[in-house]
Amino acid sequence: MSGGDKLEFEIRPNSAPVSAADRAALLANPGFGRVFTDHMVTIRYAAGKGWYDARVEARAPIPMDPAAAVLHYAQEIFEGMKAYRTASGGVTMFRPYSNAVRFAASAQRMAMPTLPEQTFVDSLRRLIEVDRDWIPEGEDGSLYLRPFMFASEVFLGVRPANEYLYAVIASPVGAYFSGGVKPVTVWVSPDYTRAAPGGTGAAKCGGNYASSLVAQAEAIEHGCDQVVFLDAVERRFVDELGGMNLFFVYDDGTLVTPPLTGTILPGITRESVLTLAAAAGHRVAEHPISFADWQTDAASGRLREVFACGTAAVINPVGTVRSADGEFRVGGGEPGPVTMALRQQLVDIQRGKAADPQNWVYRVL
Ligand SMILES: *Cc1c(COP(=O)(O)O)cnc(C)c1O
């Protein structure tokens, strides 16, 4: 695809879609990431040729050569976002162009070709159009979209691949919190770090998750829900969770989150929270927070609330912090008022129930 050409999607409808009755049964309790729609998007890339063969087709296994580069050197990136059914029967997404920009940034870091932002957003729209019946009804449900790209070239040499496959799959998801928002307990990993300066921490690549799994398993072994990573240089400052950014709320109403220095994933929820909190009159700051200060300020009561944020859970209070040295609570272990107000405001904007002064909501259908 050259310069300004628009890539056209060929629609090849699934000839054996799930029946309406079976789909309704699947949508009754979809959980997270277990149920998938009838279709997927695929777009191919070859060096010298560009992007080609954009399709919406039946979701199916992807044939892969055992020497496909991704299987050996992990050139892979992804995104995660949601489509919502509105009260008036439409379908919306939240800030999809921000995901498009981040996808391109991740691609650049992994020496992969960048997909034009408009093609990225179009790919989501075309899949949602075809699979719109898979978007759950009701307050809590949404259609989780997973765009991803990997090196498909059949070649074992170590260099950026010359061929890639971009794809989008979609998965209806139910309420993240069944039975209300529950504060999580987090484990501060003494052994593992997630990202070093100059590394891939700011790219949304599968490799970051591969390296975080053993730390997450350690968190579970210690009775925790999620792992907190400290910085790789001094093991002093808080980076983020395995897949969510962290915010700290102080007694004077200030919100602080660690700065984007390249070791943290630039969350779109994070950025939205910074904007919403500032608009609500909070002082907001991006600066490093040491684990020692976290502990001291929680004990003194200066630190009132901590929450994690990301697309899947939106905003999730952190109640208890456990480390090799023991444990402490933040805000008595209960969800705090600032956390819950920001959560409600963000959810209401995403669901079209509150004003959207930033024009974050993108109408798909
Ligand atoms: C995706 C992700 C987040 C959250 O990003 P959102 O855009 O808010 O969904 C945070 N941390 C990591 C490591 C992630 O992969």
Automatic annotation (TrEMBL):
CDD domains reported for this sequence: BCAT_beta_family (cd01557)
Its protein name is: Branched-chain-amino-acid aminotransferase
Which Gene Ontology molecular-function terms are recorded? L-isoleucine-2-oxoglutarate transaminase activity; L-leucine-2-oxoglutarate transaminase activity; L-valine-2-oxoglutarate transaminase activity
Q: Which cofactor does it need?
A: pyridoxal 5'-phosphate
Q: In which pathway does it act?
A: Amino-acid biosynthesis; L-isoleucine biosynthesis; L-isoleucine from 2-oxobutanoate: step 4/4; Amino-acid biosynthesis; L-valine biosynthesis; L-valine from pyruvate: step 4/4; Amino-acid biosynthesis; L-leucine biosynthesis; L-leucine from 3-methyl-2-oxobutanoate: step 4/4
Q: Which reaction does it catalyse?
A: L-isoleucine + 2-oxoglutarate = (S)-3-methyl-2-oxopentanoate + L-glutamate; L-valine + 2-oxoglutarate = 3-methyl-2-oxobutanoate + L-glutamate; L-leucine + 2-oxoglutarate = 4-methyl-2-oxopentanoate + L-glutamate
Family listed: Belongs to the class-IV pyridoxal-phosphate-dependent aminotransferase family.
Keywords on record = Amino-acid biosynthesis, Aminotransferase, Branched-chain amino acid biosynthesis, Pyridoxal phosphate, Transferase
EC id: 2.6.1.42
List residues, modification N6-(pyridoxal phosphate)lysine. K204
Q: Name one GO biological process term.
A: isoleucine biosynthetic process
